[in-house]
# Entry
Amino acid sequence: MTNTIVLLGYMGCGKSRVGIPLAQYIDIPHVDLDSYIEEQEKMNIKNIFDVEGELYFRKKERQYLEQLLTQKEPIVLSLGGGTPCYYDSMDYILNSNAVSFYLKASLVTLVDRLFTERHKRPLISHLETKENLLEYIGKHLFERLPFYGKASHIVSVDNATPQEIAISIKHLL
# Structure
């Protein structure tokens, strides 16, 4: 039986874009944690941040993470970028039956991917220049690396398509 597969990493690294073909390749459902939260809360992530605040969001994120990791059927689970970094979430993932993959993208790749879509992302929507975004991501990555680095596997995503990355992960299973 396949274990649940958890994809983690910084926003823009491709967790959801890789999760969809990976789930198809190994024939189990894909769940995007942010989308799952939006369905359960009946509100989009930006509105949850605006109306309820980040602390409320992080509590709900942890609650739904646990709910998804304790269900019987395996899934490919794409986390939000900050999910492993709050509460004991990364340790919880490691102590579950899940296999975790850190999708590691370079700073340049992340800035290129995120700059044009920053207005859709609450944590970076206020950043107006690529230089500011680069500085923000660099600081955040430095803080989050100790959590991301605990993943079962580290997969570089620079210069690879989501399908190529999904095949690489499938071979590591």
